[in-house]
Amino acid sequence: MPIKQAAFKSLRQSKKREIINLEKKATIKKTLKAIKKDIVKNNKAAALKAIAKAYAVLDKAAKRGTIHKKTASRKKSRLMKKINNLK
Question: Which contacts (CB < 8 Å, 24+ apart) does range 4-13 have?
């Protein structure tokens, strides 16, 4: 346990941030999973509609520091590559 008052505050902040980051990561996973489901079903129109939301979620997470910006970019690139390969 922390001894100093500043250390207590830091602990409180890190717990709050952990909860927020876990929620954001769960949202990212859920969104990507939905798009991947459309890709498996070979439904290009639905995947393209959902990609806008996925881009927004990934960009916000990268902006806030939940994930690295290059990680977000890589995920977006790979998703779009999969969608473009659909017939």
Answer: none
